[in-house]
Amino acid sequence: MAPKSPFEHFEEIALRYETTMGGLSRELSRYIIRGPAATTISTDSVVLDNACGPAIVTEEILFALPASSIPPIIQAVDI
Predict the structure, then answer these.
(1) Is residue 58 a contact partner of residue 51, using CB atoms and an 8 Å limit?
(2) Who contacts 69 (Cβ-Cβ below 8 Å, separation ≥6)?
(3) Going by C-beta distance under 8 Å and a sequence separation of 6 or more, which residues neighbour residue 57?
(4) Which of 29-43, 48-62, 63-77 has the lowest mean pLDDT?
(5) Which of 2, 6, 43, 44 lies 20 to 30 Å from 71 when distance is taken between CA atoms?
(6) pLDDT in tens, 14-43
(7) Looking at the domain assignment, is residue 37 inside a domain?
(8) Quick one: average pLDDT of 43-56?
(9) Containing domain of residue 51, as a range?
């Protein structure tokens, strides 16, 4: 078996993270992003997703916007 690429390794860890957390991060992100704060995120926004892990918050921001809109600038950072 060939060694995993960095991308494959990250995808495996990201899936495990979300499964282990029971979807809590995603559910909380949806609640915050689609609530009162959602109206403040637009195509002109600049968002910092700090300690992003598998970028759940970034995904939920993009899912909350209309498909036809230009996405905001999102900087997703983790170590």
Answers:
(1) no
(2) 43
(3) 25, 29, 33, 49
(4) 29-43
(5) 6
(6) 888 878 877 888 899 998 888 876 667 888
(7) yes
(8) 91
(9) 6-77
Q: Is the dihedral of CA 30, 35, 40, 42 positive or negative?
A: positive
Q: What is the pLDDT of residue 37?
A: 66
- 1: in domain: no
Pair 73, 42: CB distance under 8 Å: no
Residue given tokens 């002109």 in the structure block: 44
For residue 7, what pLDDT is reported?
Answer: 87
The answer to whether residue 50 sits within a structural domain is yes
Q: How many domains does one find in the chain?
A: 1
Cβ burial 17-45 (10 Å sphere, 16+ → b, else e): ebeeeeeebbeebbeebeeeeeeebeeee
The enclosing H or E element of 73 equals strand 73-77
pTM more than 0.70: yes
Computed over its alpha carbons, how large is the radius of gyration of the chain? Answer: 14
